Amino acid sequence: MNTLNKINQIFFGKNVLSQRAAVLVLASAAVILSGCARDKDLAKFQADEAKRLMGQAYAAKGDFWGTMNSKLDGKSLGSLGMTVKVVSVPQTGPDGMTPQQKPLIQVSLDYRGKSDNTVPPNQANPGYFNPDTGDFSVQIPVVDESNLPQNSKNIVITGTINAGRFVGEIYMDGQEKYGARLDLSVGTPKAKHGIVDSKGERVRQLAGDSRTYSGTYPSHGVTRTATMTVRPPSSNPQQQLLRILNPQRLVSVNFNLGIPTPPMISFSYQNTFVDDNSNQLSGIATLSNGANFDEILKCSGIGADGVSGWHCTVEGAGEVIEVDMAPTTAKIK
């Protein structure tokens, strides 16, 4: 006996309610049953939709490997691996109650140049993928070597994924000029070491971050030799990849004026920046010589690419020294 027959027998058979009341009860029961059916249909629709979205997202999944070629001159900066994973995360449906599953795209990078730098997935900024057009993008925030949260930069990857191939570019947000073009494919063997073209403009710019320079200048009738040692700060893999894409990089500088009388006069600049856009290197060292004073270092690149050397001005305690600094073959210790 179905539900409606049972309700009819209960109310009409025992004359508990009037016929009008019984009709209202029957109508309410029909609404409840209809609502239950709709809930089941909605739950099935949502489950099917979640499966559909997951299936579409899987078209972006894979281990992509290929080359990084500088946008400045097309020279190789190394190899890049991009792993795209699709995971399912819970969320509530439009009604705010019904649980659903949503695909989340996670991206990790493996850069192979002179060193191997793996950038882990960043779940705060998941990747975007449009299965209809193949458009793909992700932003990975990285704090630079200052390790100050306010100095966070975004590494941006954007392009298209079609048939297991990603074609696009990687750059630091707002500095596309210093980025690289990417051509990565699933199935390409993982690179043990990337090929870095030492003659490339970007590679030569970056090489200046770890180098010694020397030059002569006149001082009170004597020719003295000044030396300058530039070093990159210690960094983690994410920061090392960011450094390749960043035209404004933090360095430490030791500047020795070559005056032999003790104590040896040298300055250590810990918060110095190399700026490829302006072709300059600048920093300030706070020294104590009975009274605190700032020693200011300003250098302009010699040559169109800024890697042929520096014209430096050292100013502090009422004295200004100018000297042209050329690269030396001395190794950084």
Q: Which outline best applies? A: elongated
Assigned CATH superfamily of the largest domain: Quinohemoprotein amine dehydrogenase alpha subunit, domain 2
Radius of gyration: 33 Å
**Overall average pLDDT:** 80
CATH class of the largest domain: Mainly Beta
The SSE order reads: HHEEEEEEEEEHEEHEEEEEE
**Helicity, in percent?**
10-25%
Can you walk me through this structure?
- This protein has 333 residues and is an alpha+beta fold.
- The longest helix is centred in the first third of the chain and has 39 residues, at 19-57.
- It is built from 4 helices and 17 strands.
- The radius of gyration is 33 Å and the shape is elongated.
- Strands 4-3-2-1-9-8-7-6-5 form a 9-stranded antiparallel sheet.
What's the helix and strand layout?
Layout: H1 3-13, H2 19-57, E1 62-70, E2 76-92, E3 99-112, E4 116-119, E5 128-129, E6 135-143, E7 152-162, E8 165-172, E9 175-186, H3 201-207, E10 211-219, E11 222-231, H4 237-245, E12 248-256, E13 266-275, E14 280-288, E15 292-301, E16 310-316, E17 319-327
Antiparallel strand pairs: 1-2, 1-9, 2-3, 3-4, 5-6, 6-7, 7-8, 8-9, 10-11, 10-17, 11-12, 12-13, 13-14, 14-15, 15-16, 16-17
